Task: inverse folding
């Protein structure tokens, strides 16, 4: 999933892969369980230092669903310091891969 667009340039990407959400940026790829019916993320509407608002496509919904993702507890569970990691990310895009 990390094809260079989500590396040290302050840009990260979010996508889904095999039942997991994958967040890639600043040299890390973080995977965590996604909702069972998630097909894909459509667009990132907001990024605020670990808090994402995204539109997502689900198998059970004909319309996009607005979702809220808080990366801080995920990072803390992985022993990654959010105060160190998150300020390096200025923008998050959807990984179309």
Result:
């Amino acid at each position: 999933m990390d094809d260079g667009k989500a590396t040290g340039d302050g840009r990260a990407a979010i996508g889904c892969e095999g039942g997991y959400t994958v967040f890639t940026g600043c040299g890390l790829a973080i995977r965590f369980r996604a909702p069972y019916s998630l097909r894909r993320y459509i667009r990132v509407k907001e990024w605020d230092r670990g808090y994402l608002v995204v539109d997502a496509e689900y198998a059970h919904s004909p319309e996009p669903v607005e979702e809220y993702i808080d990366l801080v507890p995920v990072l803390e569970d992985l022993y990654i310091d959010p105060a160190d990691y998150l300020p390096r990310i200025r923008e998050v895009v959807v990984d179309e891969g």
